[in-house]
């Protein structure tokens, strides 16, 4: 009943069901609270720092101009903690507050993801193709208190700001600064 297929034996339906049942019967101890940033990333960082794990990139980003950003687990942990401090101190955000990120996939996007995990803030990702109308709808529906966007999308946000009553802070990621915006790179 089992024929070789590219060197592997096919499993019968009864074998698959048996395997599935054995997985279902396995009971794991789930923690009451789980935070990927502290429970996984920081643990790997400690292993790296203690020499029990070789330093490998936790994050490796390359853009179209072949510029690279490469962070170890320790560096990613450190930078994400700094980003978390920006969210809680400079932006005044607390657990449960919402942060909207309208960014291309730049390294800061990933830092923001991990920082939101650390602070307990809710990340609302948005594509950089959103229009001002799209941004307004998402800001109003989510009641986001903070928006993080690029210098090219900041004008679209500014055009709808008067209709966003919950928005208290604006972070910009880019090469230049903008009046009325906090510069994330400068704060880091």
TrEMBL record:
InterPro entries: AMP-dep_synth/lig_dom, ANL_N_sf, Mitochondrial_ACSM. It comes from the Eukaryota. It catalyses: a medium-chain fatty acid + ATP + CoA = a medium-chain fatty acyl-CoA + AMP + diphosphate. Signal peptide: none annotated. GO terms for cellular component: mitochondrial matrix. GO terms for biological process: acyl-CoA metabolic process; fatty acid biosynthetic process. One of its GO terms (molecular function) is medium-chain fatty acid-CoA ligase activity. Its EC number is 6.2.1.2. Keywords: ATP-binding, Fatty acid metabolism, Ligase, Lipid metabolism, Nucleotide-binding. Residues 51-174 form the AMP-dependent synthetase/ligase domain. Belongs to the ATP-dependent AMP-binding enzyme family. This is medium-chain acyl-CoA ligase. It comes from Scytalopus superciliaris. The lineage of its organism: Eukaryota, Metazoa, Chordata, Craniata, Vertebrata.
């Amino acid at each position: 009943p089992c024929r070789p297929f590219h060197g592997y034996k096919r499993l019968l339906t009864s074998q698959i069901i048996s395997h599935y049942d054995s997985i279902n019967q396995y009971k794991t101890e789930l923690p009451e609270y789980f935070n990927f940033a502290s429970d996984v990333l920081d643990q790997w960082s400690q292993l790296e720092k203690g020499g029990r794990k070789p330093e490998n990139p936790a994050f490796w980003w390359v853009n179209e101009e072949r510029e690279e950003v490469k962070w170890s687990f320790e560096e990613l942990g450190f930078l994400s903690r700094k980003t978390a401090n920006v969210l809680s101190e400079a932006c005044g955000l607390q657990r449960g507050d919402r942060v909207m990120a309208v960014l291309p996939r730049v390294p800061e996007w990933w830092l923001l993801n991990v920082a939101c995990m650390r602070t307990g803030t809710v990340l609302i990702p948005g594509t950089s193709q959103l229009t001002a109308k799209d941004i307004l709808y998402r800001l109003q529906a989510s009641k986001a208190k903070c928006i993080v966007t690029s210098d090219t999308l900041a004008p679209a946000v500014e055009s709808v700001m008067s209709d966003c009553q919950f928005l208290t802070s604006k972070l910009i990621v880019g090469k230049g600064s903008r009046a009325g915006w906090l510069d994330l790179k400068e704060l880091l």
